[in-house]
Structure formats: structure tokens, C-alpha cells
């Protein structure tokens, strides 16, 4: 008598598994509890305590142009334009790689996969000195170009795999009607792969929004820094700082990526099948 | 790798009605044309990604500095920087710390990620979504927020962990000061587990129920099923994920820098932090470029291994 996989009977195994999962879940949430409580507590310290009065004072207090809104806008400009650039260039590059048999197509793809795995951190100092020569230090454009270049390998790989999922028959009809490849990309392929495009765009945005080292090295002017760096400076003054304000600041900085992630997480699970190499 | 080959011959499906006179230019266009859309991306990657790597090799042979004469007019110094790295005990210590950090974090997040993926199989939907959301939030959070959270969580005076430990009658910890390596490893595992969980969850979906049922018929218990059926089936994926997470962990900077700044007393100064310090604190750009080269070489070896494992796994 075998038990069915789909509907296991409630066993001791199941109970133990549920308890283990519950414990792990709680352990994973523990470090977050302080952030949430402290951000709502005007008298917050580093210790864990329930606020005497729950208030949004901390959020109101950090709501200034210099402290919050300017860094947020900077982050949006940098991450937004870099993510946009990546999606456009990756879509263009992925199209011929997906549709034609190019002589060095596979070589190019494997080079791209190879580059996507290299640790970007390692080259930040050389990038800085190179950018000093090119006069791109402390410059949004330089920051955007580097973020885009270092994100392109994985984006091309993701994009090509999404594109492979679109049947080629529609384009064959368009080709016979004399449509150019760029036109069939724009009018046929891209509309069909909107979820894939959104996944690549948001995925890249989340990574760039959270990136600390690149703006930390490449930007100097306080007026140009994104929240990743200003948060570091904020909590670098631990001890003097108002912890409630700090927690609220971190929450405001984190909220957009958490929301974005859960909006597009369905599309992401596809990406994970690729990044681990388990092609479906 | 099915997807790479499925589109073969697609170019031949394009119309071939060109008159013979234009055949030559048409032929050229057909060969070069499809490559054109790749060029912007390839150019950007060549200049801003491959370029800095080559630049690092050049700078590594000079005494380039950040300020002063060494910044304006760097001299070619041959292998001085490489010699320095070979003779510098601080660099050796940083390499050793990097190895310890990477090994512990990769082992921790792969074991935990795989265990969670196995536990999550066959659980009900609510349990599944709550548990995976908790783990995934840790991964989605910006790394500097993670650094701040763990600094607060582990804080010696009255952090969350000590509040909990005291309330259940256990002694307080001060890992940030006494065991800083443990502290950054735990924080890094906390952050990285979701990646392994998502990869392994996808992998486990590919294990066929039939092979598990067959093992059950043969009388294998759950542990035996895991070791003789499930793990061998996804072994290639475990290998690629081990390499990928190793590469990711090798580059960790913000998390450590934010939590401990490399301290106390340099105890958590891994290679990326050592490289940063040599460049911006000691003004030794040439030397720190050599450290960068070492990191990139490590990355190239591991990445090549990843590529080979990936290609084998997908054939």
C-alpha cells in the first residue's frame, strides 16, 4: 500500500515539518520586528519594546527634501533610467540571439552567462580610477552606464529565455509580408512578452535600488546621493541618532522594493528556474 | 540546453525573393544585419564591464595613487604591487577571512535553503506562502538595511536578541564585538537563504513523483528517498547553485561594511573591504588594483566552473 504524494495523510512527519517551518519563519522575522516597532515609537531605542504610544511622528519628522525626498528622487533617477536602459538594450540583443542562428551566437550567450556570474564588487576600484580619467565620477550618467553595463549580462540571459517562449509563427507571417526584424520585434514579440519585460525591468530595478557600493564609490556630492548611501550615513551616526527616525527611514527606503517584489513575484519564479540552470 | 538550438534555421525562414543583381549586398546584409541589435549591449558591456577589468591589469603594474604625484603621473613599477601582496600578512589574513566567510555562508544558505525547500513541499498553501514570504523579504531588502537590522538585532547593550535571551533566562551575547565573523555570517545567511530556496524549490518540482513512488514501493523510508532519489536527481543543480552563491558571497561588501566596518580590529575585513581600505584610506590605487585582479581571477575560475557545470547540467 503506497501513500499518494498529492494527499498525504496527516502524520507525525507533517506535524514536525510544520513546527520546524513555523520556528524558521519566526526566526527569519525576528530582526524585522524592531524595525517596525521602532519606526512607530517616537521614543525608540535599540531595544525591543512595544511603543508607549503608536504614532507616525517618526515618518513625519523625516519627511524633508534634503533628508528623504531628494535621495529618493536620486535613487529613482539612477535605478529607473539604468533599469530602462538595460531592458531596451537586453531586448534588442536578445531578439537575434533568440530568432536567428548566428555563427557566434552560442559563444556570445555563454560569455554573457560567464560575465553575469562575476562579482562586480571586485572591479569597483578600477572603475573608479577609470571614471576619474573619463571625468565620469560624481556624475549620474557614469553611475547609470556602469549599473547598466554590469546588469546587462544577466538581463540578456533572462530576456532571451523569455523570448524563446514566444512562438515564432506570428513573425514568419510578418516576414513574408516584408516586415523588418526590428518591426516584428516591436509589434509582435514585445507585446506578447510584456510579463517577461516587466519581470526583467523590476528585477533590475530592485537590485539597483538596493545597490550600495556602486553609488557609494562613484558619487560624491551629497545632493546626488541615493537613499542607499544616505541611509548608511544616517546610521553611521549611531549613538547620536534618533532611532525612531532611523527605523522609519529604513522602512521608507525598503517599502518600494518589497511592494514591487510581491507584485511581480509570479513572473520571477520563472527567472529562478533559469538562474539555477534548471531549464524547464 | 534546448532553447539555444530551437531557433536554428530561423533566418532561412526569411523571404528570399531578392533579384540576382542585389544578391551580393543582400548576402552581406543578411550576415551582418541580425548582429546589429546586439551591438549597443555588447559595446556597453565591453567599455564599462570588461574595460575596467583590463584597466585594473594595467593599473596593477603602476604606483597609481588617489591624490598627489602618484595620481597625476603614475610610474610603471612592474611587479612591485604583486610582491607586496605576496609579502603582506594583512593581505593573507584578509584572504583567509574571505575563505572562511564564503565557505560558512555558502554552506549555511545552501543547507538552509534546501532544507526549507524540502520542508515546504506538500505543505498547505497558507503555510507555504507565509514561510516563503518571511524568507524572501530578507532577500529583497537592500543590503544596507540588512546591515542596520542586524546591527540593531545583535546590539550588545539592549538589542532584540539580548532582550529575548534574558527574558528566557539565557546569558546575553556580544557577538558583534567578541564573534564578529559569526555575526556577519549569520546576517549573510539570513539574507541569502531565499535565493537558494527559490532555486531548490524550482529544482524539486522537476523530480518525478514516479521515481519517489518506485522507491516507496521498494520500501525506502523518507531519509533514504532523499539521499538515493531526490538529491542525486538535483545534484547538478546543487553544484551550479553552490558555485553561483560562492560568486555572490565573494563580492559581499555593503553588508559587512555597514555592520562592522571590517572591525573590530580588522576581524571581519574580507578582501573587498581590504581592497577598499587600501585604495581610499592608504591611497594605494595600484596595489588595490592587484587585490581586484586576485578577486577577479578567483571569480573567473569559479565562473568558468559554473559555466561548465551549467552546460553539462542542461544537456
What does this protein structure show overall?
The complex is a heterodimer of chains A (280) and B (315). Chain A has 280 residues and is mainly α. Helix content of chain A is 72%, strand content 0%. In chain A, α3 packs across α6, α7 packs antiparallel against α8 (181-192) and α9 (194-210) crosses α12 (243-275). The radius of gyration of chain A is 23 Å and the shape is globular. Chain B is mainly α and 315 residues long. Mean pLDDT of chain B is 82; it is low at 1-21. Chain B starts with a helix and ends with a helix. Chain B has helices at 3-6, 23-32, 39-60, 69-72, 80-87, 89-120, 125-140, 143-154, 160-167, 175-178, 180-204, 209-217, 222-233, 235-250, 254-259, 271-280, 285-313. Chain B is 72% helix and 0% strand. Chain B has 2 domains: 4-60, no CATH class; 80-313, Orthogonal Bundle (MetI-like fold). At the A-B interface, α1, α3, α4, α5 and α6 of A face α1, α3, α6, α7 and α8 of B.
User: Major sheet of chain A, described briefly?
Assistant: none
CATH class of the largest domain in chain B: Mainly Alpha
| Number of continuous helical runs of chain B | 17
Q: Which two chains touch over the largest interface?
A: A-B, 113 and 123 residues
CATH homology superfamily name of the largest domain in chain B:
MetI-like
Q: How many beta strands in the DSSP annotation of chain B? A: 0
The CATH topology annotation of the domain at 64-245 and 270-275 in chain A reads as MetI-like fold
Describe the secondary-structure layout.
The complex is a heterodimer of chains A (280) and B (315).
Chain A lengths: L11 H28 L17 H5 L3 H35 L5 H13 L6 H11 L5 H25 L4 H8 L4 H12 L1 H17 L2 H6 L8 H10 L6 H33 L5
Chain B lengths: L2 H4 L16 H10 L6 H22 L8 H4 L7 H8 L1 H32 L4 H16 L2 H12 L5 H8 L7 H4 L1 H25 L4 H9 L4 H12 L1 H16 L3 H6 L11 H10 L4 H29 L2
Helix pairs in contact in B: 3-17, 5-17, 6-11, 6-14, 7-11, 11-14, 12-13, 14-17, 16-17
Entry summary:
By secondary structure, chain A is an all-alpha fold. In chain A, 72% of the residues lie in helices and 0% in strands.
Amino acid at each position: 500500500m503506497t501513500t499518494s504524494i498529492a494527499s498525504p495523510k496527516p502524520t507525525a512527519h507533517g506535524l514536525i515539518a510544520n513546527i520546524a517551518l513555523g520556528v524558521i519563519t519566526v526566526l527569519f522575522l525576528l530582526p524585522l520586528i524592531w524595525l517596525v516597532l521602532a519606526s512607530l515609537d517616537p521614543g525608540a531605542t535599540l531595544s525591543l519594546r512595544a511603543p508607549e504610544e503608536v504614532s507616525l511622528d517618526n515618518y513625519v519628522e523625516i519627511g524633508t527634501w534634503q533628508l528623504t525626498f531628494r535621495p529618493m528622487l536620486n535613487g529613482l533617477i539612477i535605478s529607473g533610467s539604468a533599469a530602462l536602459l538595460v531592458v531596451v538594450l537586453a531586448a534588442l540583443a536578445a531578439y537575434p540571439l533568440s530568432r536567428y542562428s548566428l555563427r557566434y551566437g552560442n559563444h556570445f550567450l555563454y560569455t554573457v552567462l560567464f560575465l553575469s556570474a562575476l562579482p562586480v564588487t571586485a572591479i569597483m576600484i578600477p572603475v573608479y580610477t577609470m571614471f576619474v580619467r573619463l571625468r565620469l565620477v560624481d556624475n549620474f550618467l557614469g553611475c547609470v552606464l556602469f549599473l547598466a553595463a554590469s546588469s546587462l549580462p544577466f538581463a540578456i540571459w533572462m530576456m532571451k529565455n523569455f523570448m524563446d517562449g514566444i512562438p515564432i509563427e506570428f513573425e514568419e507571417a510578418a516576414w513574408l509580408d516584408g516586415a523588418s526584424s526590428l518591426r516584428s520585434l516591436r509589434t509582435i514579440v514585445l507585446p506578447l512578452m510584456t510579463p517577461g519585460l516587466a519581470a526583467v525591468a523590476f528585477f533590475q530595478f530592485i537590485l539597483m535600488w538596493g545597490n550600495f557600493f556602486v553609488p557609494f564609490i562613484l558619487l560624491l556630492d551629497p545632493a546626488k546621493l541615493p537613499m542607499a548611501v544616505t541611509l548608511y550615513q544616517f546610521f553611521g551616526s549611531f549613538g547620536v541618532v534618533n532611532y525612531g527616525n532611523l527605523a522609519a527611514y529604513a522602512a521608507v527606503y525598503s517599502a518600494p522594493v518589497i511592494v514591487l517584489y510581491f507584485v511581480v513575484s509570479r513572473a520571477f519564479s520563472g527567472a529562478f528556474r533559469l538562474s539555477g540552470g534548471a531549464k524547464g | 540546453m534546448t532553447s539555444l538550438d530551437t531557433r536554428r534555421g530561423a533566418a532561412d525562414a526569411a523571404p528570399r525573393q531578392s533579384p540576382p543583381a542585389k544578391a551580393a549586398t543582400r548576402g552581406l546584409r543578411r550576415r551582418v544585419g541580425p548582429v546589429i541589435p546586439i551591438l549597443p549591449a555588447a559595446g556597453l558591456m565591453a567599455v564599462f564591464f570588461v574595460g575596467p577589468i583590463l584597466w585594473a591589469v594595467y593599473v596593477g603594474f603602476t604606483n597609481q595613487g588617489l591624490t598627489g604625484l602618484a595620481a597625476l603621473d603614475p610610474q610603471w613599477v612592474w611587479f612591485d604591487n604583486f610582491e607586496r601582496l605576496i609579502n603582506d600578512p594583512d593581505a593573507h589574513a584578509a584572504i583567509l577571512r574571505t575563505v572562511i566567510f564564503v565557505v560558512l555562508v555558502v554552506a549555511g544558505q545552501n543547507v538552509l535553503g534546501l532544507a526549507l525547500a524540502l520542508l515546504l513541499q506538500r505543505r498547505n498553501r497558507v503555510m507555504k506562502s507565509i514561510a516563503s514570504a518571511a524568507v524572501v523579504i530578507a532577500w529583497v531588502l537592500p543590503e544596507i538595511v540588512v546591515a542596520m537590522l542586524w546591527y540593531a538585532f545583535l546590539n550588545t547593550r539592549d538589542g532584540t536578541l539580548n532582550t529575548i535571551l534574558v527574558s528566557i533566562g539565557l546569558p546575553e551575547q556580544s557577538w558583534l564585538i567578541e564573534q564578529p565573523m559569526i555575526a556577519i555570517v549569520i546576517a549573510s545567511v539570513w539574507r541569502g537563504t531565499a535565493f537558494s530556496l527559490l532555486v531548490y524549490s524550482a529544482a524539486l518540482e522537476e523530480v518525478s513523483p514516479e521515481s519517489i513512488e518506485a522507491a516507496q514501493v521498494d520500501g525506502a523510508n523518507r531519509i533514504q528517498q532523499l539521499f538515493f532519489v531526490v538529491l542525486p536527481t538535483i545534484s547538478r543543480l546543487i553544484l551550479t547553485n553552490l558555485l553561483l552563491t560562492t560568486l555572490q558571497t565573494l563580492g559581499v561588501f555593503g553588508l559587512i561594511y555597514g555592520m562592522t566596518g571590517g572591525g573590530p580590529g580588522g576581524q571581519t575585513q574580507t578582501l573587498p573591504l581590504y581592497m577598499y581600505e587600501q585604495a581610499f584610506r592608504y591611497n594605494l590605487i595600484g596595489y588595490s588594483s592587484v587585490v581586484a585582479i586576485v578577486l577577479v581571477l578567483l571569480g573567473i575560475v569559479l565562473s568558468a566552473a559554473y559555466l561548465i557545470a551549467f552546460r553539462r547540467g542542461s544537456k
